[in-house]
């Protein structure tokens, strides 16, 4: 038997979640598949929805090239645009769209001779203060670019910093900032929403708008602690198997640092999955499911292995399947137990077998 750690990727769930992003928003939807589709496999995910996807978004030309090489013909947006002037010709050749977020990019774009004009998404900094132009400089940049022969058309975009917090008024302020500026411009298309903004169902879209769902496509709800969206289907199920079962006496400590000490006689399973596979080392008491029964991990996660408590699962023996996250075990809860977010868990998955269905 080879090492049993496996990420099962359900592409039909990915397609359903993509459709949900369109239904909830009523807008065009750019599927965000950066970082290898949040660790799920960019080519496989893109191919699963290419026949109905309005487009894809990635973080770099390398990621876009991977999709084009796999035969993806849909629009592809580079979320940070280009990083150096030398990329521009290849961007034209690959027929990608670019975000323009900084003055140096405007200078490079307007000074380079291009064989074809580019589709530009001009980014406004409406309150995130990471990338983009402040509202008072946005207008002049827009005018400069809209008259330039290298620019085919412009979508006004912005990115929310607090959309996953329903109590925050920040998102409404950011929407107002963008609307205030674009109302005087002949811009047809705008793009604001990430997954959290789509799922909170704030009315802010129309059919010419673009939404940019990421994490929701992978079946994870960034608003999970505040509201439920039962239609979201988990895409990744991370499983492994029990490779050893130990019966320990009350008072026995196990693993590195003797982090867990049994308070009763206990049955412990050793699972072939560790932080080298992407399971977070910082996880404490994270949920797991063994043979379909909920339990929790105990002790320190090590590089190749972790422990689960089997005391209440008498039938669990060597070879039992352990779900580390997926259908029964919420990736959000595992992430919370490790002080992080599911995005990071997914991006970190490696070394395991990937099985696509
Ligand atoms: C990553 C990213 C998204 C997707 O965010 P989610 O929270 O995963 O939905 C949307 N827009 C931009 C600009 C991004 O960088």
Explain the overall architecture.
The chain has 357 residues and is α/β, with parallel strands linked by helices. 27% of the residues lie in helices and 24% in strands. The chain contains eleven helices and 18 strands. It has helices spanning 11-25, 34-38, 42-49, 61-69, 88-93, 103-111, 135-146, 170-182, 195-199, 331-337, 342-348; strands at residues 6-9, 28-32, 55-58, 76-78, 97-100, 118-124, 151-158, 190-191, 210-211, 236-248, 253-254, 260-261, 266-271, 287-290, 293-298, 306-309, 321-325, 353-356. The strands form three sheets. It has an eight-stranded parallel β-sheet. Strand 5, helix 6 and strand 6 (118-124) form a beta-alpha-beta unit. Helix 1 crosses helix 3 (42-49) and helix 7 (135-146) packs parallel to helix 8. The longest helix is centred in the N-terminal third of the chain and has 15 residues, at 11-25. The model has no long low-confidence stretch (mean pLDDT 96). Pyridoxal-5'-phosphate (PLP) binds at residues 32, 34, 79, 159, 194-196, 212-215, 222.
Number of helices: 11
Main sheet overview = 8 strands, parallel
Q: What gross morphology would you assign? A: elongated
How does the helix and strand content classify structurally?
alpha/beta
Largest beta sheet: strand ordering? 8-7-6-5-4-3-2-9
Oligomer: single chain
The tally of strands reads 18
Give the terminus-to-terminus CA distance.
21 Å
Please give the share of residues in helix: 25-40%
* Succession of helices and strands: EHEHHEHEHEHEHEHEHEEEEEEEEEHHE
